[in-house]
Amino acid sequence: MCADLATDFRQAAEDVKRLPERPDNDTLLKLYALYKQATDGDACGPKPGFFDFVNTAKYEAWSQLRGMRDDEARRKYIELVRQLGA
After folding, report:
1. Collapsing DSSP states into helix, strand and coil, what is residue 86?
2. Among 16, 44, 73, 79, which one is most buried in terms of CB atoms within 10 A?
3. Residue 60 belongs to a domain with what CATH number?
4. How far apart, in whole angstroms, are the C-alpha atoms of residue 23 and residue 28?
5. For 66, which DSSP code?
6. Domain limits at 44?
7. What is the rounded distance in angstroms from the CA atom of residue 40 to the CA atom of residue 51?
């Protein structure tokens, strides 16, 4: 991974905490999924229980990115944070 990409990703992860407005839930799920894919790779482990709505939504968003390379996930995460105006 390019050092600049790693630096930009870390900066975006900090910038997202200071967004001028809270993103909608779909955007938050996208941010979560891209971050997890970039840092942990493909979703693994058991899917959360049916009544655990929040964690089930997070898991499903992350699992939809299965197979995406970490550098691609990092780029998309950085781009999304920038679009949100951080």
Report:
1. coil
2. 73
3. 1.20.80.10
4. 6
5. T
6. 3-83
7. 25
User: How far, in Å, CA of 37 to CA of 62, rounded?
Assistant: 7
The length of the chain, given as a count of residues: 86
Helical axes 25-40 vs 53-63, angle rounded to 10°: 60
pLDDT band at 85 (very low <50, low <70, confident <90, very high): confident
Residue 29 near residue 61 (C-beta atoms within 8 A): yes
Question: What is the identity of the amino acid at 80?
Answer: L
How many domains does one find in the chain? Answer: 1
Contact 34, 76 (CB under 8 A): yes
Please give the structure tokens belonging to residue 26.
């779909």
Amino acid present at 40: D
Residue 27 has a pLDDT of 98
Question: What's the pLDDT score for residue 84?
Answer: 96
CA–CA separation, 62 and 29 (whole Å): 8
